[in-house]
Design goal:
Low-confidence stretches: 109-114
Radius of gyration: 21 Å
Number of domains: 2
Order of helices and strands: HHHHHHHHH
Mean pLDDT: 84
Helix content: over 70%
Number of helices: 9
Largest sheet: none
Structural class: mainly alpha
Length: about 220
């Protein structure tokens, strides 16, 4: 590999190194020198390609969140055929839950599994120790909310968009809690995961239906 090819790959090496280190150590405990040592380049390269640590952190997050966003939207769309014909709300939620959680609880080197665990750790750290503007996170997740709301309209005609969005947040919160228990507390056995997911699906389906407008009574028809 010649010098021009190495220079062309430097930004990707910096992004890869910063992603690993920010995930492992957090923003404050990761220095530019840590990153450039890992990326095998000089400190000036961060300023040249990204304009400093803050902008590097933002670009690293943009790349990671874009990947997660596209994968979540694809999982929502893929869940629609899995829901069958006629469409079943429970089947849709089951497919969504499975696609959401499996990459997060799988071993990092599990064959065929995308490594979502790094993104999950980065987002968790950012929520605790904020370094990005709220608008930046919002712009990455709003497309997922839109895809969810549009899919849910197929199963629950009459459900308003705000309720659909809040129902998604509720279900994702339950799934994230399971990931925390499995990864950090070791309290979820693999054999118990299907049972837990089924509980989340049933609980979420009942909650979603509770927000539907009441069906017209015979007297009002």
């Amino acid at each position: 590999m010649n010098s021009s090819e190495r220079r062309a790959q430097t930004p990707e090496r910096i992004l890869d190194a910063s992603e690993r280190l920010f995930s492992e150590r957090g923003y404050s405990a990761t220095s530019v020198r840590n990153i450039t040592t890992e990326a095998r380049c000089n400190v000036a390269a961060v300023n040249y390609h990204f304009g400093g640590k803050d902008k590097l952190y933002r670009e690293m997050f943009r790349r990671r969140l874009r990947t997660l966003r596209d994968r979540r939207i694809a999982s929502i769309r893929d869940a629609l055929p899995a829901a069958g014909n006629p469409a079943s709300l429970e089947e849709f939620l089951r497919a969504f839950a499975r696609e959401f959680i499996e990459p997060l609880v799988a071993a990092p080197d599990a064959p065929g599994q995308p490594d979502d665990s790094v993104g999950f750790t980065l987002i968790t750290r950012e929520l605790v120790d904020r370094h990005l503007p709220h608008e930046f996170i919002k712009e990455m997740f709003e497309p997922v909310e839109t895809a969810w709301s549009e899919a849910l309209a197929r199963f629950c005609p009459g459900l308003d968009e705000e309720s659909a969005r809040l129902c998604m947040h509720s279900m994702v919160g339950q799934l994230v809690h399971v990931v925390h228990l499995q990864r950090h507390a070791g309290r979820v056995e693999a054999c118990a995961l299907p049972h837990i997911l089924e509980h989340i699906v049933g609980y979420s389906a009942a909650g979603i239906r509770s927000f539907l407008p009441p069906a017209p009574s015979e007297a009002t028809r």
